[in-house]
Amino acid sequence: MNIGVSTSCFYPLETEASLESLGKAGIKHTEIFFNAMSELKQSFVDILLDIQKEYGISVASVHPTMSLAESFMIFSAYDRRYREAEEQYRRYSEIAAQLGARYIIMHGGKPNGVLSDEEYCERYMRLKEATRENGVTILQENVARHRAGDIDFLRSMKRILGNEAELCIDIKQALRCGCDPFALVGEFPENIKHFHISDHSVSSDCLLPGDGGFDFSAFFSAAAAKGFNGSFIIEVYSDCYKSYDDIYNSYFNLNQNIFSK
């Protein structure tokens, strides 16, 4: 298992600058969040590859910039628009493969979508087949105010697709949806491939690890006991810290206090 930090933590700092900041801080594992369509150009990807090589950074996953449009682009009734989105995701899978990333994170459709659960899963599988051409898998994230924020929908995906329903579980999103992160680990052990982690308190559902009361040691142990051997990526918003050093300290303290034991 690995702990990393998402480049999204630095938003709105540019993607390449965020990656370099992690490298300079000595953080060796990340998820890259793309923030503009121009960042899909090979010339930009080459910049990321140079930074990755210089600092020896491994990339677990990538996060498309089109996440806010996925309900409209991928999970609507208009197939031509879906095909355009598929080409974008195919490009993301090419980039992920170059970076050595295994996963693409997807927010997915909204609750008021026109597709049935079966149709949603069929569209998800079509997209997965497109990215598998480059050895990359799409993970459905449990995002609040999205269809997969509902645990009953995750159960439906698992019922329809079995182990093909592959998930990224985000702790803060689980809390916003009224789900216990530990319960998700217990119910979907074969489906969870990746985690976004954050801490929380009575006053905030999104804090840097160590700034709240969440028991990360127990959580990591629970995941490991279910056979999880992937990445725990710190993902918080820029209003959750005062300086970048807070991010770095959270990462190193979590590694020292949990994974050094």
Structure description:
By secondary structure, this protein is an alpha/beta fold. The chain has one domain (2-259): TIM Barrel. It is 44% helix and 15% strand. It contains ten helices and eight strands. An eight-stranded parallel β-barrel has the order 1-2-3-4-5-6-7-8, surrounded by five helices. Helix 5 (117-132) links the parallel strand 4 and strand 5 (137-141). Helix 1 runs parallel beside helix 2 (42-55).
What's a concise summary of this model?
By secondary structure, the chain is of the alpha/beta class.
Break the fold down into its secondary structure elements and pairings:
Elements: E1 2-6, H1 15-25, E2 29-33, H2 42-55, E3 58-63, H3 70-73, H4 79-99, E4 103-106, H5 117-132, E5 137-141, H6 151-161, E6 167-170, H7 171-176, H8 181-187, E7 192-197, H9 216-225, E8 231-234, H10 244-259
Parallel strand pairs: 1-2, 1-8, 2-3, 3-4, 4-5, 5-6, 6-7, 7-8
Helix pairs in contact: 1-2, 4-5
Number of domains: 1
Helix content: 40-55%
CATH-defined architecture: Alpha-Beta Barrel
What's the CATH topology name?
A: TIM Barrel
CATH class: Alpha Beta
Number of DSSP helical runs: 10
- Beta-strand portion reads 5-15%
What does the overall shape look like?
globular
Q: Write down how many β-strands occur, each being a DSSP E stretch of 2 or more residues.
A: 8
The CATH homologous superfamily name equals Divalent-metal-dependent TIM barrel enzymes
As laid out across the biggest beta sheet, the strand order is: 1-2-3-4-5-6-7-8
Q: Write down the secondary-structure element order.
A: EHEHEHHEHEHEHHEHEH
Low-confidence stretches: none
Distance between the termini: 13 Å
